[in-house]
Design a protein that fits this description.
Protein name: S-layer protein
InterPro entries: S_layer_C, S_layer_central, S_layer_MJ
Structural class: mainly beta
Pfam family, one: S_layer_C
Helix content: 10-25%
Domain S-layer protein central: 118-442
Domain S-layer protein outer: 34-533
Distance between the termini: 47 Å
Largest sheet: 9 strands, mixed
């Protein structure tokens, strides 16, 4: 049976005064109608004056374009309000589905297999490596019949886990993987069990070619449940994995400080000349309101954790004249601590993963390639069509009813709220967000939400209460097709990048169609609109 790739559903990006990382430069698009007037009216009185609609059958590129438009409009929304230390909260939502698999065929009244394990990841290449690690081994997920279900677009992939390349010149990757094993019998009438230890969420490090795993090192970036973190420390005394959100990555001269806000600063106090043949020693201080609250004086690599602050000093050196020194470091906040062998989430225990396919609760284990959350709750029995099993409260595994057959697949419909400082960049649910600036100066905080990109199945021209931005042509966007059928827009497979206004077409509100003859032309039209806003 052929399997179909399920497309990503929709992405919503919201928050106070946020700008995503968009392509820059001059973009051209054919304009039909008063596009300039529509663009000038997307924000009114500090609030979004439009909704954004993307097609249910849209390509991933259309969804990204819709998210970028939403982020740009969000960056235009501001009112006077209190801003503490230049920070803002941003919400990101996304949905997606993996390939499916025919688990149970009703016509023959028996499962196609009585026991099978399924995986999905951010890229199908990672599935192949995962099978190489765990198939035929004595590891914790040892199972000979692993069935990959392609990729799940909303699982996070990090393309370069060591951007400063202090320890490895290769641009190694990290990616999230979901695993589950369904167990049934030949006479169970389409019922399956998910037993204790038979489901896991994993975040693993891979080589740049995506052909093998690689060692996970301190200072590497790694996804954790949809968000990018820096591995700050593997605490071998208490068996802890400690990660934090990057706020600074670079080189600081001795005597320089980095302001974390709320009165906290990190200072490279001194870099001392090394004894012959040894590394320089670095004195790192964390200060609160000018007073030292934590300090470490050592050779690199230095790992330092104080409260919600984590620091990794990768290397240090003196200038040619030995007048002063430099330290290369990563500074993080929003520290998250995983106690190995203990519940990180209810019914989900944290482990490190080794290159032997083992889940270990020892932070000093050799060959660590990632982290895992393994299901350790009660057996879930007699799961049948329309039942679901949630993996780490993050990915849903569904026993889908397909005309009494059962297809299995992974789904995600996830929302994340992240806090950013000015200039900070984060990756969340495979969207990259950067807080460029905040413009506010009053006594009361003001909460604002950028427009949400919804599916065409969730919107209507007749029921619209504000202007609409439709991303995608009539082939992929049902509302664009309605306008085309009514003769209000003219877009076909040969159309260039086009911005077309249909005046009053959405219950008296104007509609802007952002489309072209193919997905690349639609992306170009979206970039042209963003450049106008």
């Amino acid at each position: 049976m052929a399997m179909s790739m399920k497309k990503i559903g929709a992405i919503a990006v919201g928050g106070a005064m946020v700008a995503s990382a968009l392509a820059s430069g001059a973009f051209a698009a054919e304009k039909v109608g008063d596009v300039n007037a529509f663009a000038a009216d997307v924000v009114a009185d500090g609030n979004a004056n439009v909704d954004i609609v993307v097609g249910s059958n849209a390509a991933a590129l259309d969804v990204v374009s819709a998210a970028n438009i939403a982020a740009k409009i969000g960056s235009l929304m501001f009112k006077e309000g209190t801003v503490e230390d230049g920070a803002a909260k941003v919400s990101v939502s996304a949905s997606a589905e993996s390939d499916d698999y025919p688990l149970y065929v009703a016509d023959v009244d028996q499962p196609t297999t009585t026991e099978v394990a399924f995986i999905t990841s951010a890229d199908k290449d990672y599935n192949d490596v995962f099978e190489d690690i765990f198939n035929g081994t004595s590891g914790d997920l040892d199972y000979l019949a692993i069935q990959p279900l392609g990729k799940l677009d909303t699982l996070v992939e990090i393309d370069d886990i060591d951007p400063s390349e202090w320890n490895n010149s290769n641009e190694d990757n990290a990616a999230e993987i979901a695993y589950i094993k369904a167990t049934g019998t030949t006479d169970d009438d389409g019922q399956y069990d998910v037993l204790k230890n038979d489901a896991a969420y994993l975040s693993l490090a891979f080589n740049d070619a995506k052909t093998n795993y690689t060692a996970l090192r301190i200072g590497n970036r790694i996804p954790v449940l949809g968000e990018e973190y820096v591995l700050v420390k593997l605490d071998t005394d208490d068996d802890l994995v400690i990660v934090g959100k990057e706020v600074f990555d670079g080189v600081m001269k001795e005597g320089e400080s980095y302001d974390l806000g709320n009165g906290y600063t990190v200072k490279v106090d001194s870099v001392l000349k090394p004894i012959s043949g040894k590394d320089p020693k670095v004195n790192i201080k964390i200060l609160k309101d000018g007073k030292v609250v934590s300090e470490k004086f050592d050779t690199t690599q230095i790992k330092m954790v104080y409260g919600d602050i984590g620091i990794v000093v990768n290397s240090a050196w003196e200038n040619v004249g030995s007048d002063y020194g430099y330290a290369e470091l990563v500074i993080t906040n929003n520290i998250v601590t995983m106690e190995l062998g203990e519940e990180f989430l209810p019914d989900w225990k944290a482990y490190v993963v080794t290159d032997e396919g083992e889940f270990e609760k020892d932070a000093s284990a050799t060959g660590i390639i990632g982290i895992a959350l393994q299901y350790t709750g009660e057996d879930e029995e007699d799961l049948e069509k329309d039942d679901t099993f949630d993996i780490a409260d993050y990915v849903t595994f569904e026993f889908e009813d397909d005309d009494d057959d059962i297809n299995t697949l992974f789904k995600m419909d996830e929302s994340k709220e992240v806090s950013l400082s000015i200039g900070q960049k984060v990756s969340v649910l495979n969207a990259e967000i950067k807080l460029a600036e905040i413009d506010a100066e009053a006594k009361e905080a003001v909460v604002m939400t950028a427009p949400i990109a919804v599916l065409d199945s969730e919107a209507s021209l007749d029921a619209a209460d504000k202007g609409l931005i439709l991303v995608g042509g009539p082939v992929v966007n049902a509302l664009t097709a309605e306008l085309a059928d009514a003769g209000l827009v003219a877009i076909d497979n040969e159309s260039p990048a086009t911005l077309a206004v249909a005046a009053g077409a959405a219950n008296g509100n104007d509609v802007l169609v952002v489309a072209g003859g193919d997905r690349a032309a639609t992306e170009e039209a979206a970039e042209a609109l963003i450049a106008m806003l």
